[in-house]
């Protein structure tokens, strides 16, 4: 409702402005009519305005004809004369006798033309539609469309526009960045729909691929799954794949104003107008793993990795470089050659790679008419097929269609809610998952017993020789950072980096050597009691075993020189309590739709903790300040230092703590709430305890 009132207010101001009255707020330009420097066309409901605007310094202003959102004149969506700016505000736009729109400068020279010519007709008109599309039509010939601005995009994709290719005449629709923020001439970056395999939204710099969203899978592009979090309330996506054209576009929901922009920096942003400002809800490339082909053939990129490189080889492949992991692009080499003959005989099989952006489909074959099982059989019978995946996963049903990669796979990365890829491996590689239990079981039992004894001895020895760590040390050793790295990231724990502080810890904003922004939680020395160390180890161990889009991801920790430090992904929108209990201006930023999305996200996170992870985790301190919000307002549950791990379906009361008031008589009996896991929720059971026997005073 707030957004609707804001739009109505902006529209009212627009309608009451002197410029609007002077121009007549017309949306149509008839034959022989013109628009001069101060005139405009305004769409029927006032959403879009077309007119002249200027860019550049005051000493060298350049003038352009363009279309913009009426509430935000800086949000220019289309420019006519980007290549030929006018030197002053004396330009004139006229609809000529032959149906062409002509932009003339003060000397009468044509700076731009729509080149839409027909025989002279008195019923021709140009109209700015409510979609932001400028059209030229001949009303006397059945309202024939002669020309439209949507066929000639600039740097912005609006609702109802499309990018793609006309298969009949070869015409392409693509977005082109501006050269700079104050120069709308075509820049180096283009956003095109690659139609060589499955439709894929690609960012090019010149002719070099910089970034792919991943192929279209029926509901989204497989590597841009953020859209799944907002498409139901904002936009409807669609890909047209017919004999005449392959194209992508979107339709905004009623009352939603949004635009997809290729910035002059080579970044693609989606903006949505909410609460009287443009909010950026998507950005690509997002991180180093979005760089095209970063990890080479058969390499996969994992942005959550804390190693010096984000890359690693897929299962069944090894890094063939002389110094492992010293470069971003890995020469991954297959460990065991595939066993496949030209007559179709093979013992190869497939392993599932979960949750990825599908590889580039340039070297893939696509068949939308077969099932998943048929796809597997077809790939298995083709010795050149190294991987396959479903081409269509929409609707949550059985995946259908088939895409098969030949010879190699490139540009693979992990993403939240990604697709599954099936990678071809030799039988001996697959057999590593299935040891002969009857043969190895006795040996395994012996080894396990020895390993347990060795572990006990090692833990005791470690405790003696590393007394500063104490008994409460986390086990997530492969994600530990040394203290100098943490100090460098936070400016040696500079006060200027502090973004939050509580009774037990200080939180710093930091930046890792690879450029990632992180939140660094440093426990205060006063908090390093035995309980504090136990809570620290619990949080590390809990977070090491959970992975979900609505849980704050623990990137690493530091347990060195008496320090206890946790390193998390940085959440730019801070915590939920700020928007519930904070200033009115902050509270107003959460509309009811967004609040509902946050509730759903938290519920999904809690459901995963209780039932979706390997162990059942009870948070025990879930509150608004422990729900953080990323740049897309997606909630992330944080602060697991009081969390409790349960064996699934078995209640645990072993560490029951009863907080006793000093005003209670120890002879009294009280009822306390005991939480135990039942079904998908944790239910309260009231039980009676004798204070004299059962209490623990905190």
TrEMBL record:
EGF-like domain segment(s): 285-323
Membrane topology: Single-pass type I membrane protein
Any one GO molecular function term: ATP binding
This protein's UniProt keywords: ATP-binding, Disulfide bond, EGF-like domain, Glycoprotein, Kinase, Membrane, Nucleotide-binding, Receptor, Serine/threonine-protein kinase, Signal, Transferase, Transmembrane, Transmembrane helix
GO CC, any one term: membrane
Ranges of residues in domain Apple: 340-426
Record-listed ATP binding positions: 521
Class of enzymatic activity (EC top level): transferase
Residues annotated as domain Protein kinase: 493-698
SMART domains given in the database record: B_lectin, PAN_AP, S_TKc
Catalytic activity: L-threonyl-[protein] + ATP = O-phospho-L-threonyl-[protein] + ADP + H(+); L-seryl-[protein] + ATP = O-phospho-L-seryl-[protein] + ADP + H(+)
GO biological process terms on file: response to other organism
PROSITE patterns reported in the protein's UniProt record: BULB_LECTIN (PS50927), EGF_3 (PS50026), PAN (PS50948), PROTEIN_KINASE_ATP (PS00107), PROTEIN_KINASE_DOM (PS50011), PROTEIN_KINASE_ST (PS00108)
Chain ranges of the Bulb-type lectin domain: 26-149
Signal peptide: 1-22
Transmembrane segments: 434-458
Entries under Pfam families matching the protein: B_lectin, PAN_2, Pkinase, S_locus_glycop
InterPro entries: Bulb-type_lectin_dom (IPR001480), Bulb-type_lectin_dom_sf (IPR036426), EGF (IPR000742), Kinase-like_dom_sf (IPR011009), Pan_app (IPR003609), Prot_kinase_dom (IPR000719), Protein_kinase_ATP_BS (IPR017441), S_locus_glycoprot_dom (IPR000858)
Family label: Belongs to the protein kinase superfamily. Ser/Thr protein kinase family.
Protein name: Receptor-like serine/threonine-protein kinase
């Amino acid at each position: 409702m707030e957004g609707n009132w804001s739009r109505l207010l902006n529209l009212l101001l627009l309608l009451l402005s002197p410029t609007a009255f002077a121009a007549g707020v017309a949306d149509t330009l008839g034959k022989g009519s013109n628009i001069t420097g101060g005139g405009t066309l305004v769409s029927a409901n006032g959403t879009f305005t077309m007119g002249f605007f200027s860019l550049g310094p005051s000493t060298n202003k350049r003038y352009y004809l363009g279309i913009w959102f009426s509430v935000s004149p800086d949000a220019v969506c289309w420019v006519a004369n980007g290549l030929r700016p006018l030197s002053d505000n004396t330009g004139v736009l006229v609809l000529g006798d032959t149906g062409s729109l002509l932009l003339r400068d003060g000397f009468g020279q044509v700076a731009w033309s729509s080149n839409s010519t027909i025989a002279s007709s008195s019923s021709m008109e140009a109209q700015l539609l409510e979609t932001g599309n400028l059209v030229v039509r001949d009303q006397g010939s059945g309202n024939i469309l002669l020309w439209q601005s949507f066929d000639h995009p600039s740097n912005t994709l609006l609702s109802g526009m499309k990018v793609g290719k006309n298969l009949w005449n070869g015409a392409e629709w693509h977005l082109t960045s501006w050269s700079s923020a104050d120069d709308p001439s075509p820049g180096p970056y283009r956003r095109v729909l690659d139609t060589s395999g499955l439709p894929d939204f690609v960012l090019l710099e010149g002719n070099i691929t910089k970034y792919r969203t991943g192929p279209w899978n029926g509901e989204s592009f497989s590597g841009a799954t953020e859209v799944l979090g907002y498409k139901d309330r904002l936009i409807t996506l669609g890909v047209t794949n017919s004999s005449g054209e392959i194209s992508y576009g979107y339709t905004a929901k009623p009352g939603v104003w949004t635009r997809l922009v290729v910035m002059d920096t080579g970044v693609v942003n989606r903006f949505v107008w909410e609460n009287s400002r443009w909010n950026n809800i998507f950005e690509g490339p997002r991180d180093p793993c979005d760089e095209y082909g970063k990890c080479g053939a058969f390499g996969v990129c994992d942005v959550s990795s804390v190693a010096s490189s984000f890359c690693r080889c897929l299962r069944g492949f090894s890094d063939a470089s002389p110094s492992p992991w010293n470069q971003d692009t890995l020469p991954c080499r297959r460990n065991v050659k595939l066993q496949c003959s030209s007559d179709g005989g093979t013992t190869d099989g497939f392993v599932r790679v979960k949750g990825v952006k599908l590889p580039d489909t340039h070297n893939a074959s696509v068949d939308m008419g077969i099932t998943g099982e048929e796809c597997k059989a077809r790939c298995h019978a083709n010795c050149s097929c190294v991987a396959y995946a479903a081409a269509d996963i929409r609707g949550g049903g059985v995946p259908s269609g088939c895409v098969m990669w030949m010879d190699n796979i490139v540009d693979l990365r992990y993403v939240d809610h990604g697709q599954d890829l099936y990678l071809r491996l030799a039988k001996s590689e697959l057999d590593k998952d299935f040891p002969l239990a009857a043969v190895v079981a006795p040996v395994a039992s012996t080894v396990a017993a020895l390993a347990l004894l060795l572990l006990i001895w090692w833990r005791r020895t470690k405790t003696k020789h590393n007394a500063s760590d104490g008994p409460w040390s986390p086990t997530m050793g492969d994600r530990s950072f040394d203290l100098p790295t943490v100090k460098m990231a936070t400016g040696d724990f500079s006060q200027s980096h502090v973004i939050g502080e509580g009774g037990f810890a200080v939180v710093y904003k930091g930046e890792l050597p690879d450029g990632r922004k992180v939140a660094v939680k440093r426990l205060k020395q006063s908090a390093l009691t035995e309980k504090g160390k136990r809570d620290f180890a619990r949080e590390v161990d809990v977070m090491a075993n959970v992975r979900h889009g609505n849980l704050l991801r623990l990137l690493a920790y530091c347990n060195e020189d008496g320090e206890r430090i946790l390193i998390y992904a940085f959440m730019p929108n801070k915590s939920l309590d700020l928007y519930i209990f904070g200033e009115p201006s902050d509270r107003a930023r959460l509309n009811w739709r967004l609040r509902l999305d946050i509730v759903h996200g938290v519920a999904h996170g809690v459901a995963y903790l209780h039932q979706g992870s390997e162990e059942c985790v009870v948070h025990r301190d879930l509150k608004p300040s422990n729900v953080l919000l990323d740049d897309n307002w997606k909630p992330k549950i944080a602060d697991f230092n009081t969390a409790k791990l349960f064996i699934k379906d078995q209640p645990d009361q072993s560490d029951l703590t009863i907080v006793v008031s000093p005003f209670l008589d120890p002879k009294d009996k009280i009822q306390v709430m005991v939480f135990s896991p039942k079904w998908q929720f944790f239910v309260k059971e009231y039980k009676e305890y004798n204070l004299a026997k059962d209490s623990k005073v905190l």
